[in-house]
Specification:
This is protein-glutamate O-methyltransferase. The chain is built from nine helices and ten strands. With 268 residues, it is an alpha/beta fold. The chain folds into two domains: 8-71, Chemotaxis receptor methyltransferase CheR, N-terminal domain (Chemotaxis Receptor Methyltransferase Cher, domain 1, Orthogonal Bundle); 82-266, Vaccinia Virus protein VP39 (Rossmann fold), CATH 3.40.50. The strands form two sheets. Strands 6-2-1-7-8-10-9 form a seven-stranded mixed β-sheet, with helices on one face. α3 packs across α4. It starts with 7 loop residues before the first helix and ends with a strand. Bound molecules: S-adenosylmethionine.
């Protein structure tokens, strides 16, 4: 069997579905990427054309979820953009008026490295009943991996040595070459599937929201919708982190004060 080729019309339909579902604009340069990421599914179902796969995606919700999982880009690592974690550790936690619990939402958490990085700091600085972290992502596979908390050993290098010593367990046997996040953090954490285009109104309120390295995938209108939606869940006076490589230039940020590059505070 020759390798199926993704035709332009088929690509446009995938673009449309992915935009509707995830809000992500796959530009025309992504055609080969889409072709190669979805090829696995064609081989799995023994389909000879992408049209056959499209038909399945259109009638089968589980396959649509699988398609979204395959098309999202989930690159992440521990303590990515260290300045945010230093700000959290040195400026935010020590001065924050702790009411009941310090609550963080890692929105678009991928496999959870961002959420666990923050958890190691909070657990070091606060009592167990004083913090909570929720990680969400549209991709159900990464959420499953985040719940497990098992990572390749090479990822551990980004974790500061004193935290590595306290929270990372070296894998043995079938987990040789991996490390596991210490289970002591798990009771304070939750990972859930969640679409930033459709945040439940009862999702709760947070003191700090990470929304990093995901806005780049959206157009301005979607960025506005996502930031507005996320802001509904930030407490007045709460903080909001985007990536250093992103900006909010083209959208309305009324009610948000820029503290420094990529760090914002909700007024009130
Ligand atoms: C590049 S990763 C960023 C991970 C982490 N925030 C970081 O900065 O390392 C982007 C994540 O956004 C997720 N994502 C994309 N569109 C989304 C949407 N509409 N709702 C929720 N998550 C989404 C992807 O599945 C992916 O895991």
């Amino acid at each position: 069997m020759s390798i199926p080729i993704l035709e332009d019309a088929e690509f446009r339909t995938f673009q449309k579905i992915f935009f509707q579902e995830a809000g992500i604009d796959l530009n025309d340069k992504k055609k080969l990427l889409v072709q190669s990421r979805l090829l696995k599914q064609l081989l799995k179902y023994k389909f000879e054309t992408y049209t056959e796969y499209l038909r399945l995606v259109q009638i089968n919700q589980l396959e649509k979820v699988e398609m979204i999982n395959l098309l999202t880009t989930n690159e992440t690592y521990f303590f990515r953009e260290m300045e945010h974690f230093e700000f959290l550790q040195k400026e935010l936690i020590p001065t924050y008026p702790i009411h009941t619990k310090f609550r963080i939402w890692s929105a678009a958490t991928s496999v959870g490295a961002e959420a666990y990085s923050a958890a190691m700091l909070l657990d070091t600085m606060l009592d167990k009943n004083k913090w909570e972290i929720i990680g969400t992502d549209i991709n159900s596979d990464v959420i499953q991996k985040a719940r497990v908390g098992l990572y390749p050993e090479s990822w551990v290098e980004k974790i500061p040595a004193y935290l590595r010593k306290n929270y990372c367990l070296k894998g043995k046997g079938i987990n040789e070459g991996k490390f596991l996040i210490d289970r002591c953090l798990i009771p304070n954490m939750r990972f859930e599937e969640g679409n930033l285009l459709n945040i439940p109104s009862d999702f709760g309120q947070f003191d700090l929201i990470f929304l990093r390295n995901v806005l780049i995938y959206f157009n301005d209108a979607t960025r506005q919708k996502v930031v507005d939606g996320v802001m509904d869940h930030l407490l007045p006076g709460g903080y909001f982190f985007i990536s250093h490589t992103e900006n909010l230039n083209m959208i309305n940020t009324n009610g948000l004060e820029r503290i420094k590059t990529s760090i914002y505070r909700k007024q009130g």
